[in-house]
Design goal:
By secondary structure, the protein is an alpha+beta fold. The protein contains three helices and four strands, in the order βαββαβα.
Length: 97
């Protein structure tokens, strides 16, 4: 059961893909999001236990000394958050607000 989400943002798409591979191989984590968010920026979001997320984000953050990056660890999240990030929500019946 995943209890944390880790997010790493990079200003190089190529470096983001390279570090993303290293992050997935360094710990037992699930990939939630891996995409470009605007020209030249790359976002990777992972889910796992807290210690696995910390272990996976650490190499990514330390190898980006020349590339400005930001990382975030969200711990103790609700169980309903992960399904919302990994698949689109469907609306059964649309109504006016």
């Amino acid at each position: 059961m995943s209890q944390a989400i880790g997010i790493l943002e990079l200003t190089s798409i190529a470096k983001g893909m390279e570090l993303g591979d290293a992050m997935l191989k360094s710990a037992n984590v699930d990939l939630l999001v891996s995409k470009t968010i605007c020209p030249g920026k790359y976002l990777r979001m992972l889910a796992a236990e807290i210690d696995a997320i910390q272990h996976a984000i650490q190499p990514g953050s330390s190898q980006t000394a020349s590339i400005p990056a930001d990382s975030l660890l969200l711990s103790k999240i609700r169980t309903t958050i992960l399904p919302a990030t990994s698949r689109p929500n469907t609306v059964a019946q649309r109504k006016a607000v």
